[in-house]
Amino acid sequence: MDIDLVTKADILQLKNEIISLLSEALSNTSNTGRRYLKSSDVMEMLGISASSLQTLRINGSIPFTKLGGTIYYDYEEIQKILQRNKRNCA
Hints:
Largest sheet: 3 strands, antiparallel
Structural class: alpha+beta
Shape: elongated
Number of helices: 4
Order of helices and strands: HEHHEEH
Strand order of the largest sheet: 1-3-2
Helix content: 40-55%
């Protein structure tokens, strides 16, 4: 009969590994929980139509990646664009 004992040190090591993996995963995501967004997410986020989003892609205002037939946008890039275009209202 083979018996494996789990020690307190084993549990602590596992806990630290889990915390490390979660921290790494969280640092690679955004407030949406995802690093990359689909067009529908960006349209909702910016309050724009599909044609407006297409225009932004065509004129190079918004970076994107196309994989297969799906277009993806980096959440951080969208945030940077919003900050660059931020205006102060009186």
